[in-house]
Write a structure and sequence with these properties.
With 486 residues, this protein is of the alpha/beta class. It is 38% helix and 18% strand. The chain has two domains: 245 residues, Spore Coat Polysaccharide Biosynthesis Protein SpsA, Chain A; 219 residues, Rossmann fold (3-Layer(aba) Sandwich). The protein is built from 19 helices and 14 strands.
């Protein structure tokens, strides 16, 4: 436990009446074990800095550092500077404590314990864990109700099960904190919620610890309605980012979140539905989850990807860049060739399509999918001057080409292929609400949206799924005649 360097970070703004009390209430054993206690005074207009320095000099506490900002950074901005300071100091753990005395320094040992014992990457003090504690401690009824409603909404939206999202009593493993882009977060009060989303999305462990509630005569600087509105906006930004309809770098995750979409109206299921059991399948751009589903259909699968993927039961796996000729014998034929979200990543997509033709069995099919750049959400974004790439979805930063429906169809036809069918997938609402993906309302919304897709694919389809085949001799003759006439 004692091998970790611990820092206590106190945020303070106009805390002259409380700052000395907060310092004195920090347990003696905490003072002895910590590397540093630092106060970031956010341009207070009272004597906060002076009183803290006076207490430091009177008590001879060298571990205490007081830094006053010349310009107010905001609640979130102050935190960003504090965490960066602790990281640069080489600390392992940082605790966020408020200078207004609202959070009890006496429970610092309980807050630190999960981090020092490597049971968590983040610890939150919760005033809601013990029934009745918050109200008994003086939390106003409107704040209590608001806290409960917002926490329930945030849990529902993210799949979390926290008892409270809005406590400012927190501790973090700084190695974990250094892996999330907290510096991109707001400088306003909803910084705390943004950092929770980032922690959850990166699969970091969060432990809650019950803390006492105290409300005194301190001034609250939070505008409740604005705060609630900002939280709703952040949740929507996160959800749109997750399904690739908007990109927001603050939610860029280090975790590979690729997963097969199981809705019957998703591109994955629409592709799988096209493939008959026991077929010979060439999966170009092979992903493990799709292959596993093909193997369950008793298909014989050959996979090609630029990176090796260990897949039990696959017939053959070829590691190669699809910009180059396919490294398979030309006499090897397949009933289906899958190009699921592949063409948009290639500079020479037409060449790959031409290559595929020679590997098709006599009645073989090529199944292709791509994101719809002309989706109504994208059209609205362009209307407001927004077009930013991210790590996944339609605006994946690795895409080198973007397709509306007519361009996608045209590219396939130009490769000498005949279109058999065109389908559109629904927006993946199951990814928006993963913990409720099997619920009736999510499935209902998906079904209703699929009807809009059927009516107007180019506007409402999230992805296009096209089945194509080699031209027949008759079709080739017709094309030659048309070319001659032109």
């Amino acid at each position: 436990m004692q091998n970790k360097k611990v820092a206590i970070f106190i945020v303070a703004y106009n805390a002259a009446s409380t700052i000395v009390g907060v310092l004195e209430r920090i347990p003696k054993e905490i003072w002895e074990m910590v590397e540093e206690v630092f106060i970031f005074d956010d341009a207070s207009q009272d004597r906060t800095q002076f009183l803290a320095e006076e207490w430091k000099n009177f008590n001879g506490v060298e571990k205490l550092t007081i830094i006053r900002h010349s310009v107010n950074q905001g609640y979130g901005g102050n935190q960003k500077l504090g965490y960066q300071y602790a990281i640069k100091k080489g600390c392992d753990v940082v605790v966020l404590l408020h200078g207004d005395g609202q959070y009890a320094p006496e429970v610092l040992p309980e807050i630190l314990s999960p981090l020092l014992e490597d049971r968590a990457e983040a610890v939150f003090g919760s005033r809601m864990m013990k029934s009745g504690s918050a109200r008994a401690g003086g939390m106003p009824l409107y704040k209590y109700v608001g806290n409960k409603i917002l926490t329930k909404f945030e849990n529902w939206s993210t799949g979390a099960s926290l008892t409270e999202w809005h406590s400012g009593y927190r501790a973090y493993n700084l190695k974990a904190l250094g892996q999330i882009p907290f510096h991109l977060n707001t400088s306003d009060f909803h910084f705390d919620s943004e950092i929770i989303i980032q922690l959850l999305d990166n699969k970091f462990r969060i432990v809650e610890v019950p803390i006492p509630t105290y409300y005194g005569d301190e001034i609250c600087y939070v505008n409740g309605m604005k705060y609630a509105g900002n939280l709703f906006k952040v949740i929507m930004q996160y959800k749109m980012h997750k399904i690739g309809l908007q990109s927001n770098q603050k939610f860029a995750s280090n975790v590979n979140n690729y997963e097969i979409k199981k809705s019957p109206f998703s591109s994955h299921m629409l592709i799988l539905d096209e493939i008959k059991p026991r077929s010979r399948v060439l999966d170009l751009g092979c992903e493990a989850e799709m292959t596993k589903n093909l193997l369950q259909k008793k298909c014989v699968v050959t996979g090609v990807n630029i990176h090796f993927i260990e897949i039990e039961g696959i017939k053959k796996f070829v590691v190669q860049d699809l910009e180059n000729p396919i490294s398979l014998p030309e006499d090897e034929k397949f009933d289906y060739i899958i190009l699921a979200d592949v063409l948009e990543h290639l500079r020479n997509a037409q060449y790959l399509l031409s290559e595929c033709k020679k590997y098709l069995a006599q009645e073989g099919k090529i199944i292709l999918s791509t994101g719809n750049i002309a989706l109504w959400v994208m059209r609205l974004s362009l209307l407001f001057g927004k077009f930013n790439y991210g790590r996944r979805g339609i605006l994946d930063e690795t895409h080198v080409r973007l397709y509306p429906l007519n361009s996608f169809v045209s590219s396939i036809k130009q490769a000498g292929l005949s279109i058999v069918s065109i389908k559109g997938s629904s927006i993946p609402f199951e990814l928006l609400f993963p913990q409720h993906s099997k619920s009736g309302y999510v499935q209902g919304i998906t079904w209703i949206y699929s009807k809009f897709v059927n009516l107007w694919k180019s506007m409402f389809a999230y992805q296009f799924i096209i089945v194509a085949e080699n031209l027949t001799n008759t079709q080739e003759e017709i094309l030659k005649i048309e070319d001659f006439k032109n």
